Amino acid sequence: MLHIGCHLSSSRGFAAMGRQALELGADTFQFFTRNPRGSRAKGLDPADAAALVSLMEEHRFAPIIAHAPYTLNLCSAEERNREFARETMADDLRRLEFLPGQYYNFHPGSHVGQGTEAGIELIAQGLNAILTPELHTTVLLETMAGKGSEVGGRFEELRAILDRVELSDKMGVCLDTCHVSDGGYDIIRDLDGVLAEFDRCIGLNRLKAIHLNDSKNPPGSHKDRHACIGEGEIGLEALARVVRHPALRHLPFCLETPNELPGYRQEIALMREQSKS
Ligand code: FE
Ligand code: FE
Ligand code: ZN
To answer: What is the widest separation between alpha-carbon atoms in the chain?
Structure first.
């Protein structure tokens, strides 16, 4: 069975997200670890976390994705900002120990003119400063659209980061369909070719989750504007091939489409249906 869910608000706590996911027909979901501006996280309630863990076990959830605030930048030009990113991520990882075995996804960063190579090095240094052998979370680099000075728009860049992370077994990759299409990988006409390229550069064994989004823009546009499934340039047929692909179909898929909950419920049902045909 397809593992699919959507991005949910964490404002009512962990167990509430699990119940919300069930109501939507989901068996995975994603949430921001704190508000996207990266401010202080709320106090963590261990009983609430434990309630989510047992709900997920009872309903056989696939791993869920905690998403770091997208404003963090491990490769900022300012040490102060890099330190803030490291400290916030380290704090998120400490808190995620209450939900062992899940994923922590983050945007690698923007090199802001320092160059891709310098960005890659700073990102790897940041990860080396926060990963510990005791972690029960797998940290995912998200594939990016290559907007502005984003690092991670090319598979080679993600590979270069992974190569420099010492505790490499703590790391994986989350592929965002909007981002890779915007980044110039032709998942519309040549999904097999893109996955072969991913395998050659990174290794498909590193791929742990998929962000399933249509794109408001054509392939190669480097824009990063998500569209609802079937309402963008990628289209339903190409996204259906993604959820059906034998190399991907075991992974958790997470919608980050511009929907309210009823829209998410419909897209989850639609993709479950598409995954069978
Ligand atoms: Fe993201
Ligand atoms: Fe994404
Ligand atoms: Zn995006």
So the answer is: 51
For the cut 90, the answer to whether the pLDDT of residue 31 exceeds it is: yes
Nearest to 146 by CA among 191, 176, 173: 176
Q: How far is the CA of 196 from the centre of ligand 1 (A)?
A: 23
**Single-letter residue type at 267:** E
Residue at token pair 């890659």:
120
pLDDT for residue 38: 63
Q: Which of 37, 40, 60, 80 is catalytic?
A: 37
**What dihedral angle (degrees, nearest 10) is formed by the CA atoms of 3, 273, 259, 144?**
50
- Model confidence, pTM: 0.98
Q: Which of 3, 7, 82, 107 is catalytic?
A: 107
pLDDT at 268 (0 to 100) = 98
> How far apart are the C-alpha atoms of 211 and 145, rounded to whole Å?
13
| Contact status, residue 119 vs residue 164, Cβ threshold 8 Å | no
Q: How far is the CA of 107 from the centre of ligand 3 (A)?
A: 9
Q: Looking at the chain, how many residues does it have? A: 277
Q: How far apart are the C-alpha atoms of 239 and 174, rounded to whole Å? A: 16
